[in-house]
Every structure is written in structure tokens, then in C-alpha cells.
Automatic annotation (TrEMBL):
This is ATP-grasp domain-containing protein. In the N-terminal section; belongs to the acetate CoA ligase alpha subunit family. GO terms for molecular function: ATP binding; ligase activity; metal ion binding. PROSITE patterns: ATP_GRASP. The keyword Disulfide bond does not apply. Keywords: ATP-binding, Ligase, Nucleotide-binding. Pfam families: ATP-grasp_5. It comes from Pusillibacter faecalis.
Length: 221
């Protein structure tokens, strides 16, 4: 059977429907000054801008992501650059627009995901996110569905156990990871056609709600 990748917006909407807190986003289909100004008022600066396409998964590699934008003029330049790079580097890709997101402050990055094992089916994973994913490969896995006890054990099997107790004076809410793992498990049960989910990063904060930034969902076609 084939696979179908959801674009970033559709992936975020699916995860949000499951109770997972996603970063606030706006989709632009045109780059007029009025539209950009309204978007800036809705989100505030700084923002991140990315291409929205079902066919472009690795946006950064193709020059289709712009970070740290602090002005409407910068948004206009980024909008044109992203579309130009998409046309140049992925000429056959279908482009639905440009996503504008709040650029969140730094926090502690967690990896959440789902993969599909040919024998066991959907498998949930959690571990250190960001630059630590490849460096440490510190992840824990369980078959779907999971219980609250499973979620707790998954955290305990990774360095996240110590992180949640406090890192450099910041204490992170362990329960936010537990609830998100349970929500992901329920989402997979509701949608057995889900083959993969990649949420990296899911950012933990000591003084605000944890938020998922980038998300990708792949379905069985």
C-alpha cells in the first residue's frame, strides 16, 4: 500500500484535534502589505515562515524556511524568497501557500513520534529532541495503545526523567509529556491509517504551556 504525507497545516490540525498544543499559525496565499500587517498583528514578532506543500517535506534543505523575522518588510522578502526557492528547487511540487508561525522562545526540546512496525503495528516513542536526537538516540518506545503507567515508564527510561526534576534551575512539567503521549496514543487508535507521526520539537517551558512546533503525519493511502 502507498503512503500519503499530510502537509504541515493538516498535520497540525489533526494533532490539535487530539488535544496536543500546537504553535499558532496563519496560512498566506498572497503577500500583500495589508495581509502581512494583519498577520503580524495576529501573531506578533518574531515569526517563522515556511512553504506549505504536500510535496515538500524537507523545507529547510530547499531554502523554503525563514527564521527570526521582525518586520512586515522582512515578511514580504521572506514570502517572495520561499516561493522562488520552491519553484526553483522543487519545480513539480504543489504549493498551497506560506505558513507564518509565532517564533517561540527557547525551551527544552522533546521528540514525540509514531512509527509502524510490520509485526507489532503502531509504536509510540518519546525522547530528547532537537540536536540530541541523533547525538544520543535516547528514546523509549511502546506499542499503541499505552496506559498512563506506560507513559510514566517511557519518561523514566530516558534522560527526560532527570530533566523534569529540574535543569539549570528550571523545573519542567512532567505531566505535559504524559498527557501528550496519551493523546497521541488515542489519536492512533482513532486513526489506524496513521503510519508515522513526527513532532520535533515539542518544547517544554518552566513558566508557560508546552507547545509543539513542527509536525508531520503520514497516512496509509
Amino acid at each position: 500500500m502507498g503512503k500519503k504525507s499530510l502537509n504541515e497545516l493538516d498535520s497540525a490540525e489533526l494533532l490539535s484535534s487530539a488535544g496536543i498544543n500546537m504553535v499558532k499559525s496563519v496560512v498566506l496565499t498572497e503577500g500583500s502589505d495589508a495581509t502581512l500587517k494583519q498577520t503580524a498583528e495576529d501573531l506578533g514578532f518574531p515569526v517563522v515562515m515556511k512553504v506549505l506543500s504536500d510535496d515538500i517535506l524537507h523545507k529547510t534543505d530547499l531554502g523554503c524556511v525563514c527564521l527570526g523575522i521582525h518586520s512586515v518588510e522582512g515578511m514580504h522578502e521572506a514570502y517572495e524568497t520561499i516561493l522562488e526557492n520552491a519553484r526553483k528547487n522543487a519545480p513539480s511540487a504543489r504549493v498551497q501557500g506560506v505558513v507564518v508561525q509565532q517564533m517561540l522562545p527557547k525551551g527544552f526540546e522533546v521528540l514525540l513520534g509514531v512509527s509502524t512496525d510490520p509485526q507489532f503495528g503502531q509504536v509510540l516513542m518519546v525522547g530528547l529532541g532537537g540536536i540530541y536526537v541523533e547525538l544520543l538516540k535516547a528514546v523509549s518506545m511502546r506499542m499503541v495503545p499505552i496506559s498512563r503507567a506506560d507513559a510514566e515508564q517511557m519518561i523514566d527510561e530516558t534522560p527526560l526523567k532527570m530533566v523534569c526534576k529540574g535543569l539549570r534551575g528550571v523545573h519542567y512539567n512532567r505531566e505535559e509529556i504524559v498527557e501528550t503521549l496519551l493523546n497521541l496514543s488515542k489519536l492512533c487508535q482513532k486513526h489506524p491509517e496513521i503510519r508515522e507521526v513526527d513532532v520535533n520539537p515539542f518544547i517544554l517551558y518552566g513558566d508557560r504551556k508546552a507547545t509543539a512546533v513542527d509536525a508531520m503525519v503520514i497516512l496509509e493511502d
